[in-house]
From TrEMBL:
<feature type="compositionally biased region" description="Polar residues">
    <location>
        <begin position="271"/>
        <end position="282"/>
    </location>
</feature>
<dbReference type="InterPro" id="IPR017974">
    <property type="entry name" value="Claudin_CS"/>
</dbReference>
<keyword id="KW-0796">Tight junction</keyword>
<protein>
    <recommendedName>
        <fullName>Claudin</fullName>
    </recommendedName>
</protein>
<keyword id="KW-0965">Cell junction</keyword>
<comment type="similarity">
    <text>Belongs to the claudin family.</text>
</comment>
<feature type="region of interest" description="Disordered">
    <location>
        <begin position="228"/>
        <end position="293"/>
    </location>
</feature>
<feature type="transmembrane region" description="Helical">
    <location>
        <begin position="156"/>
        <end position="184"/>
    </location>
</feature>
<keyword id="KW-1003">Cell membrane</keyword>
<keyword id="KW-0812">Transmembrane</keyword>
<dbReference type="Pfam" id="PF00822">
    <property type="entry name" value="PMP22_Claudin"/>
</dbReference>
<feature type="transmembrane region" description="Helical">
    <location>
        <begin position="79"/>
        <end position="99"/>
    </location>
</feature>
<keyword id="KW-1133">Transmembrane helix</keyword>
<dbReference type="InterPro" id="IPR004031">
    <property type="entry name" value="PMP22/EMP/MP20/Claudin"/>
</dbReference>
<dbReference type="InterPro" id="IPR006187">
    <property type="entry name" value="Claudin"/>
</dbReference>
<keyword id="KW-0472">Membrane</keyword>
<feature type="transmembrane region" description="Helical">
    <location>
        <begin position="111"/>
        <end position="136"/>
    </location>
</feature>
């Protein structure tokens, strides 16, 4: 049996989503801050969930910058830390279930386990999408996510974009794997329909049997079926001794008639006296004459 397309698609999208969400969580590129008055014009400050880096076009990136404004203490950052780590753990669990459910070394996949892994991966995508969307919502709000006043500008970083893409891939991969529940549900429902009921259902209409004399029926229709007379069930033992039924009319006897006129030609054309000899009497018929008999 070939691996279903939904399982193959889920097994491709889910690891890609895991890779993108992991990169988004660890890299310090959720927000870009630039335009400092007392700093070089090409200075860019990259802010993430765990680190803050400083980069110039003519120098290398310097990470581990001090947080003077309390950026890491902001509520969106703290919530994003917890939810992204939880999302990574749930994603790992979902991939483990998917590996056990999708057929790799068996003849047929385990549809129920593959569908469960899809639900877990879909949940992981939601857990990562919530902090990313919330952080993006307060990206330019300097009261929630502290930043220097204008003319300093804030922009979306690459880590936030990777977080969105990873969440979408996890959602799509989880939904694709969750479609594996369809064959399992169909097989389970068919087995439930074919299974015999545990207890016979009591009929809503009660049947009452009354013992009494059998009503007299017309002999013409009494115990007569298929054109043959059959005795009553209680008379099966005495059927050879006693017969019941009605006499069938018999046709009258038919008399035999010969279509050939045997007397034809016995008399001669000229009548002769009664005393004449019968041997000279011609017979015009091929049959023997009565006089010869």
């Amino acid at each position: 049996m070939r691996t279903p397309v939904v399982m193959t698609l889920g097994m491709v999208l889910a690891p890609c989503g895991l890779l993108l969400t992991l990169t988004s969580t660890l890299t310090p590129g959720w927000r870009l801050v630039k335009g400092f008055l007392d700093q070089p014009l090409d200075l860019v400050l990259y802010q993430g969930l765990w680190d803050m880096c400083r980069e110039q076009s003519s120098r290398e990136r310097q990470c581990g910058q001090r947080d003077h404004l309390g950026y890491f203490a902001a509520e969106p950052v703290r919530v994003a830390r917890g939810l992204t780590v939880t999302s990574l753990a749930v994603t790992g669990l979902g991939l483990l279930l998917a590996t056990l459910g999708v057929r790799c070394w068996r003849d047929e996949p385990h549809f129920a386990l593959a569908g469960l892994s899809g639900v877990v991966l879909f949940t992981a995508g939601l857990l990562n999408l919530i902090p990313v969307s919330w952080y993006n919502h307060f990206l330019a709000d300097r009261t929630v996510l502290p930043a220097q006043a204008s003319p300093v500008t804030v922009q979306v970083g690459y880590s936030l974009v990777l977080g969105y893409l990873g969440s979408c891939l996890l959602l799509l991969g989880g939904f694709s794997l969750a479609l594996s529940f369809a064959p399992w549900c169909a097989e389970h429902c068919d087995s439930c329909r074919k299974a015999p009921p545990s207890s016979a259902r009591r009929s809503s209409i009660s049947t009452v049997y009354i013992d009494g004399p059998e009503p007299a029926l017309t002999p013409a229709i009494k115990y007569y079926s298929d054109g043959q007379h059959r005795p009553r069930p209680d008379q099966l033992g005495a059927a050879s001794q006693r017969k019941a039924g009605f006499p069938m009319p018999r046709p009258p006897p038919r008399a035999y008639s010969n279509p050939v006129d045997v007397l034809d030609g016995e008399k001669a054309p000229n009548s002769e006296p009664s005393g004449s000899s019968l041997s000279t009497r011609p017979c015009g018929s091929a049959l023997p004459c009565d006089s010869d008999l």
